[in-house]
Automatic annotation (TrEMBL), chain A:
Signal peptide start and end residues: 1-30
Protein name: Cytochrome C
Molecular function as annotated in GO: electron transfer activity; heme binding; metal ion binding
Keyword Coiled coil in record: yes
CDD domains: Cytochrom_C3
């Protein structure tokens, strides 16, 4: 009895102390945290996150690692603190590749304190999440219990299967005996059955063949059907319209070009100045995906599709370092013009000003890209027949100048109209 | 006798006419059926379908994105050899460090003349390569820094925000993490940042040629005045 009361007493004490602490903390920080959140998001998120390392270290637990006074002087002017020879500051600067943190001389002490309060509150939240993970660890012992249970279950199933096999064997043996003793009768019955089946089918076939109109109609239907099918197939030989291969990474143009409004040429810059629109190299992906991991949708883990970029680059997101064993991402080519047709993206995009969507369709809504246009010669020619030439450029200025000269009867050599350009002969 | 013959003849003709009608009818029906069947599906397919004389389609020379066994790493698009400078490119003799950044800021000036054509090009390039984070006006409010959501085959969900960069504009008075106001960054510093990237920003050297970088720098310096 005494024991129980003392235990109860201790419990009450801890609970009340905990409550008081919590109350004090909430009282002190409630008003700060909100202000801290706004300040944190406008000043700090470029380089810091509470829970993970970005350009700068994860901030969770920073008020345990450093005194408030130290944090204030660091945040206001970290370079001055380093110059003053503060050991912690110098160490931190060296650990993080001598990256200089922005000086925030414009922040007041109270504002910085509210940022610290916000980081502490967020850190505590994250730690609670960690607590859940720990209880998940406790669950793993449960799951090992479950494993032994499963093993026993499997053994039971195996035993059961063996019993069933033995029983079935017995049954088969007795049935074989029965068959052997009644062989003749069974054969007679089978023959009768076959004759009956044959008779039924034969009757139907004979009736069908006798009806000449029906036969004619059926043959006609078949020929017409195959004709249309063949016609369509032949016309679509080598036409890949609607081709939507499975890509190695589930890259969504709907998210990147549609929702994020990233310009097409951010990744396909070749379309401005070369024959090929070019598939971006993975460093272009990393311009954003060095920070964007979509971890909020994958329980704090990097999205498996984004992780494929990291694997291709041999990049370790924990240390933010690249290894020396990169492997190219093998995208499947969708638009494939035959080698005997020359097509130049820059001529269409930079000179003619054709929108990407004119040929590639509503790319910004495609979760998975497919070939929108047939890319047949007729398709090219149809567009060329109706597109008006934009003559407001240097090429046509030269052309008109050359015509004027000819009109006046001036002498004009091949060299004057580009006959000495290397590419005219060597390509 | 004649009458019977005539009658037979007309009957034959009638029958032929009827057959013709039937024939045409069934041909129409069959074509309609075939057309309906062949138009099934949404027109998207995982296969390229039938191809004739594939070797006329495949290039003899290697495409830049094709695998290539002639190179050790199996890639056609090789990097230029070290210590070479591609035509139209100039060397950027500054390292990726804070001291070199400051030096670039002191020593480099924009080699391009401020012309309408250069500014227009800079505007277009800025819009393509920078505005997605830095915003159309350089205020650091590009679309990927804002709250946004997508709805696709995996359902509706919020997308992660990219950390917003500080504003270039004088009126916002934001500070650079490497010291000084964003609106007072010199041309060399901006060029250095485009070349190497900084903080959350990656290097954009592979996407912009030297001339294009200077055009972007010119346009950014216009935004700084706002």
């Amino acid at each position: 009895m005494r024991n129980i009361s003392s235990v109860l007493g201790r419990l009450a004490k801890t609970v009340s102390v905990g409550m008081m602490l919590l109350f004090a903390v909430t009282m002190a920080h409630a008003q700060d945290v909100k202000e801290g959140e706004t300040l944190f998001k406008s000043k700090c998120t470029t380089c810091h996150s509470v829970s993970r390392n970005m350009v700068g270290p994860a901030l969770a637990g920073m008020s345990e690692r450093h005194s408030e006074e130290w944090l204030l002087s660091w945040i206001k002017n970290s370079q001055a603190l380093i110059a003053s020879g503060d050991e912690t500051a110098v160490q931190l600067f060296e650990d993080w590749n001598r990256l200089v943190m922005t000086s925030f001389t414009d922040l007041s002490d109270d504002q910085i304190k509210s940022i610290i309060a916000y980081v502490d509150a967020e850190g505590a939240k994250a730690a609670e999440g960690g607590g859940d993970a720990a209880s998940g660890g406790a669950g793993s012992t449960q799951s090992s219990d479950a494993n032994t249970l499963m093993i026993f279950g499997l053994i039971a199933i195996v035993v059961l299967v063996i019993i069933v096999i033995v029983v079935l064997n017995r049954v088969i043996r007795t049935l074989e005996k029965v068959i052997a003793s009644n062989q003749a009768a069974i054969e007679a019955a089978q023959a009768e059955n076959e004759a009956y089946e044959e008779d039924r089918f034969g009757k139907f076939a004979r009736a069908f063949i006798r009806n000449k109109k029906l036969v004619g109609f059926s043959v006609l239907m078949l020929v017409a059907f195959l004709g249309v099918l063949g016609w369509n197939t032949m016309w679509n030989v080598g036409v890949h319209e609607g081709y939507q291969p499975v890509q190695p990474i589930k890259f969504s143009h709907q998210i990147h070009a549609g929702v994020n409004q990233i310009e097409c040429q951010y990744c396909h810059g070749g379309a401005f100045k070369s024959k090929n629109a070019s598939i971006p190299s993975a460093n272009v992906c990393m311009n954003c995906h060095n920070t964007v991991t979509a971890a909020d949708h994958y329980d704090g883990e990097t999205s498996p599709e984004i992780a494929k970029i990291y694997r291709a680059l041999d990049y370790d997101p924990a240390t933010r370092e690249y290894g020396d064993n990169p492997k190219p991402i093998e995208w499947v080519r969708i638009h494939n013009l035959p080698d005997f047709a020359y097509f130049n993206h820059s001529q269409h995009v930079s000179v003619a000003g054709v929108e990407c969507q004119t040929c590639h369709g509503p790319i910004e809504t495609m979760e998975e890209v497919y070939q929108y246009s047939p890319l047949t010669m007729k398709w090219c020619v149809d567009c060329h027949k109706t597109t008006e030439v934009n003559a407001d450029n240097a090429y046509y200025d030269q052309l008109i100048e050359a015509h004027e000269k000819l009109k006046k009867g001036e002498k004009m050599t091949a060299a004057m109209i580009g006959g000495l350009e290397c590419g005219k002969c060597h390509y | 006798m004649m009458l019977v013959r005539l009658k037979l003849n007309t009957m034959k003709e009638n029958m032929l006419a009827m057959n013709k009608k039937n024939f045409l009818g069934s041909v129409c029906a069959a074509f309609a059926l075939a057309a309906v069947v062949s138009s099934c599906g949404d027109g998207k397919t995982r296969s390229t379908g039938w191809e004739f004389s594939r070797n006329m389609y495949d290039p003899i020379a290697y495409n830049p994105d094709q695998p290539n066994n002639n190179f050790k790493n199996g890639i056609t698009a090789q990097l230029p050899p070290e210590n070479t400078t591609p035509i139209g490119f100039e060397r950027f003799e500054f390292d990726n460090s804070i001291e070199e950044y400051e030096r670039a800021g002191r020593e480099l000036t924009n080699p391009l003349a401020i012309t309408e054509a250069n500014l227009a090009k800079g505007d277009a390039l800025y819009h393509t390569y920078c505005a997605v984070c830095h915003g159309k006006e350089g205020k650091g409010d590009g679309p990927i820094t804002q709250d946004r959501s997508v709805e696709d085959s995996r359902g509706s969900r919020q997308l992660e925000n990219f950390p917003p960069p500080p504003s270039y504009q004088k009126s916002d008075g934001a500070n650079s993490s490497r010291g000084g106001a964003m609106s007072e960054l010199t041309a060399g510093k901006i060029y250095h940042t485009i070349y190497y990237g900084h903080n959350s920003m990656g290097s954009h050297a592979s996407q912009l040629s030297p001339e294009e970088r200077w055009q972007v720098v010119m346009y950014v310096q216009e935004l700084q005045k706002k």
